[in-house]
Amino acid sequence: MQYKPLGKSGIEASIVGLGGTSFGGYQESGAPDDKASINAIHAALDNGITLIDTAPSYGWGHSERIIGEAIKGRRDNVVIASKCGVWWKDQRGSSNGIKDGKEVTVSLRPDTIQIEVEDSLKRLGTDYIDLLQCHKPSIPPEETPIEETMECLMNLKHQGKIRAIGVSNVSLKQLTTYDEAGDLSSDQFRYSMLTRDRESDILPYCAKNNIATLTYLSLEQGLLTGKVTLDRVFDQNDFRNNIEKWAPWFKKDNIKRLLDMFSGWEDLLAKYECTIAQLTITWTAKQLGASHILCGSRTAEQSIQNAGAGSINLDHEDMQRISNDLVKLGDPV
Prior knowledge:
Elements: E1 3-5, E2 12-14, E3 16-19, H1 21-24, H2 34-46, E4 51-53, H3 62-70, E5 79-84, E6 86-87, E7 94-99, E8 102-106, H4 110-124, E9 129-134, H5 146-158, E10 162-168, H6 172-181, E11 184-190, H7 202-208, E12 212-216, H8 252-263, H9 266-272, H10 276-285, E13 292-296, H11 300-308, H12 316-329
Parallel strand pairs: 3-4, 3-13, 4-5, 5-9, 9-10, 10-11, 11-12, 12-13
Antiparallel strand pairs: 1-2, 6-8, 7-8
Helix pairs in contact: 2-3, 2-11, 3-4, 5-6
Protein name: Aldo/keto reductase
GO cellular component, one term: cytosol
Domain NADP-dependent oxidoreductase: 16-323
């Protein structure tokens, strides 16, 4: 496994991180398998992954509780990244619709952030969070100034309750304001071989200003593993069925184009003794400004496979070859 600093924080973390969304479960898929989740976490830690990302809103605290249970006796070997800002206890903040059956708001007020941090510490069974990230940007009508939010986060850092500060899903302008207002260490956002718009703004800024990047959906819900075939059928409520609005790459024609591209990588898979998913993770982690790739896992085997990507070193020529193939692939049809 390779490790990189989380920006200016001084905290080293594995370049492959474990995403904790699935540990909380989803309304449409029912309750998660907690035993399998704990096994997946243990397998990740046993194979060099130290970075685990979660949030209070993942299962309304369930993901944090499961992670807290899984890391008992191993806390010193784990870099916990959690979040604040998605609020559901009362009407403070600005309405952000319905999530998994609950009315939620976005609240980056100091009073709600402090409550969230105390609750997260209890659920995680720890007295500090390594990286606390603002889950979403503040929105009208109750839009908390970034400077006010950062002052609260800096106070929590000085108190030792958090070690570093991050943001998530922000614009370049918002990122710059956060960076100027305090000690910003990381930015989390969607980025993959198929979703590369952040290469024009966020990634170069982070590279220039020593801000770590935690990218999610880098395997595009399984598309970039090569395991989604033309006969794959998803559950009725799965968003991947909504190909027109949310998931154009899941159209049959586009899946075929991806599978054709993957078939041309057989020699690379043999050369690096890796899977398509591992090749994808490694390529993504080596792009300008990219540092840490978050990969979800429901089983121990998935954790082991994802962790394996962290030890692969692609040659420059092979990196360029893959990039050229992606240019030829183009946009979804």
